[in-house]
Please model this.
Amino acid sequence: MRPDNGRAVRIGIGGPVGSGKTALVAALCRSLAGDLRLAVVTNDIYTTEDADFLRRAGVLPDERIRAVETGCCPHTAIRDDISANLDAVEDLEDRHAPDLVLVESGGDNLTATFSKGLVDHQIFVVDVAGGDKVPRKGGPGVTTADLLVINKTDLAELVGADLGVMARDAAARRGDLPTVFLSLVGDPAAAPVADWVRARVAAGPAGRSTAAASVPAEPAGRPTVAGSVPAGHEGRPTVAASVPAGHEGRPTVAASVPAGPAGRPTVAAPPGHSHLADSAGAPPGDEPRANRTSLPVPAAATPSDADLLAGPSPATASSGRLDVPTNPADAAPAQAPSGGGTAPVDMSATTDGAG
Model:
């Protein structure tokens, strides 16, 4: 039943700690081993506990079981950085050519989901011992998994969980996505889950290995940059078409530069040098005035009280501007007399009549 494209169907199994993921994997291996060639990848943070359990149970030959020690939150290795799991899956495919690879996540919370770059489908497992409110709480694991398994139904009466409430809330959260109630005590073969898995394998790998075909073709002369599509985002439109030919992969800022007259780009002046701006590229109304300068005013050119009382000069009165000399030497202050004396004060400029 192996698909013609050369890789196995990959199904991820996630859920909280203690929900029965590993026991479900073992049950599926027993049920499907007669029909399918299987391989399993397990995830634990610091140990190989789940892989060791499967080996002791003898559900598959040891070489078909791989353990990944994530060293971090389990969802990181199945969603954010899938490299360790993907390496394990592809190595199993190369060595054993399985029809199906089951990837079991380490125990996590209701937000745990698998990257679509790692698996084709995902099963999310919760159990009644966590309370009948769990499906109502939602989270991506509950609401988006291809199959929700509510496990350990044999414990419902013992923990006071209402299976009817869980069924109602799961349907409200998941819409048309299927939910299965399961007790491995009463059904060691996990028959409804095994049937669902068989149907997924018969359908093939869900196009994950050929996702590049769904990316729109680029215009002539603008090839797609192969590494520009992040893992898990295959099939989303690429924006490489906006990059000029020969510059693929290089960001363009041409669209952010306002055009000046006759298509000339604006030449921005360095900070503090606005008088150097290119007038040909300035927006209408902002062209620098002819002959305008931005010379700094010398500190010694500040007018004295006597200058202010004497009134503006004819040039200043006509122009409305203070006539400031541009040569600092012309505005040099008077030097104090030698010998430490005090400079004489001209009292002729006073206007109060005293004198």
User: Anything to note?
Assistant: Residues 24 and 190 are 7 Å apart (CA to CA). The chain has eleven helices and seven strands. Residues 83-96 form the longest helix (14 residues). The longest strand covers residues 38-44.
